[in-house]
Amino acid sequence: MHEMSLMESVIAIVCEMAQLNGASAVKSIRLDVGVLSHINPDSLLFCYEAVRRGTIAEHAALEINRIAGEGWCLDCGKTVPLDERFGACPDCGRYQVQATAGDELRIKDMEVI
């Protein structure tokens, strides 16, 4: 379950940035998680409950936005939707597709008090 270490890193970054900016508490956190990232949102939520305790983010709400997979097909020369990493182009069926979106884990924003 790599989600535990990922969420520990997210909380560490959020708390550090909040404290550097003089905040006393984090009210909410929004994450972008790509569908190609191999990160399970339910596991992230489970880990979030464990790692936020005792931090200034202890009472913060967590929102996870799923980002669709997208790639650039070198054979078609166009942007196509991707359901899996290294998947075939849905238009031509070839595998010369470079992923351009959907593999991210990003702190989109946070609200502090």
TrEMBL record:
Residues binding Ni(2+) are 2
Residues that, per the record, bind Zn(2+)? 73, 76, 89, 92
Question: What GO molecular-function term can you cite, just one?
Answer: zinc ion binding
Pfam family of this protein, just one? HypA
* Keyword Transcription applies: no
User: What protein family is recorded?
Assistant: Belongs to the HypA/HybF family.
Q: What does this protein do?
A: Involved in the maturation of [NiFe] hydrogenases. Required for nickel insertion into the metal center of the hydrogenase.
Descriptive protein name: Hydrogenase maturation factor HypA
- Could you tell me which species this protein originates from? Rhizobium tropici
